[in-house]
Q: What sequence folds into this?
């Protein structure tokens, strides 16, 4: 006997994964979902397929019922944290909506399933003083076998993250032609392949100029930041760089590259920037996403008021 089933799938393989993989491949090719989101969706939909298979499901998504979806959600709510359930329902909704658009499904059996509300947690931030210390050149370098070129690349990467409020994926996707050194504007490809122009600041521009002077531009379509062995800088390399800098600066190790993006927004608002301009800077689709940073600046204002105002205590 061979190790395959009659439908050609490996013995023991989960049913229904073909359409899931096709959906994720299309999202990856169209860049309609971020790589991290694609990974979350894959794990969520595979978990659903595994749960359905245990109930005797055949793998036919068009036969999926609202009752099955509700039972799955109820079971997950008993065994998983609320953010995990939220992600799994989001993945299922997106996948079934894709099947409907392609004419492979009628009414969505997930239509009546509500997303669990998530508590709005204020992100942990770099203060302005911490950001200055983090971005300063450390006295004792954390990594061995560095070169002037690698140090210049590190500095350019960190200044762009903080100066432009960029996501790590946006930073690593920048090409030489995407940054206008004269105007200090960068063309950024964000979530859903949406382009936006963002100012990155004079310090970031100077850091990029110094880096390119050592490296050479290499053409407008070349990656702006190169890995030591060539090719675009990888997000994991940026994450390692941030951890190295946190360690060297004596800062909390639970800060992350994304916290520099949060810091950019909060420091802009704290120094008088308009909320809608910050929304455009970060590429948020909804203003409510940006408004979380107003809570942070208000919290700081309350703290200052409590300490400084004679009528506060």
A:
């Amino acid at each position: 006997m061979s190790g395959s089933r009659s439908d050609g799938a490996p013995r023991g393989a989960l049913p229904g994964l073909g359409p899931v993989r096709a959906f994720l491949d299309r999202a990856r090719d169209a860049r309609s979902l971020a790589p991290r989101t694609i990974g979350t969706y894959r794990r969520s939909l595979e978990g659903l397929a595994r749960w359905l298979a245990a109930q005797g499901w055949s793998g036919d998504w068009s036969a999926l019922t609202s009752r099955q979806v509700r039972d799955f959600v109820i079971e997950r709510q008993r065994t998983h944290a609320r953010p995990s359930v939220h992600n799994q329902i989001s993945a299922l909704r997106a996948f079934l909506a894709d099947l409907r658009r392609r004419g492979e499904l009628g009414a969505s059996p997930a239509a009546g399933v509500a997303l669990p509300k998530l508590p709005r947690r204020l992100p942990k931030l770099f203060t302005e003083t911490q950001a200055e210390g983090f971005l300063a050149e450390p006295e004792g370098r954390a990594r061995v076998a560095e070169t002037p070129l690698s140090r210049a690349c590190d500095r350019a990467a960190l200044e762009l993250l903080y100066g432009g409020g960029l996501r790590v994926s946006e930073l690593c996707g920048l090409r030489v032609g995407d940054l206008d050194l004269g105007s200090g504007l960068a063309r950024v490809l964000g979530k859903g392949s949406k382009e936006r122009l963002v100012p990155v600041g004079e310090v970031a521009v100077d850091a990029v100029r110094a880096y390119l002077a050592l490296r050479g531009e290499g053409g407008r379509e070349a990656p702006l930041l190169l890995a030591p062995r060539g090719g675009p800088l990888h997000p994991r390399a940026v994450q390692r760089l941030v951890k190295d800098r946190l360690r060297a600066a004596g800062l909390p190790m639970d800060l992350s590259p994304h916290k520099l993006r949060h810091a950019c927004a909060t420091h802009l608002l704290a120094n008088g920037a308009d909320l809608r301009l910050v929304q455009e800077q970060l590429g948020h689709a909804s203003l409510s996403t940006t408004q979380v940073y107003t809570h942070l600046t208000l919290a700081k204002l309350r703290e200052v008021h409590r300490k400084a105002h004679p009528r506060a205590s």
Observations:
- The beta strands are 179-180, 185-189, 195-199.
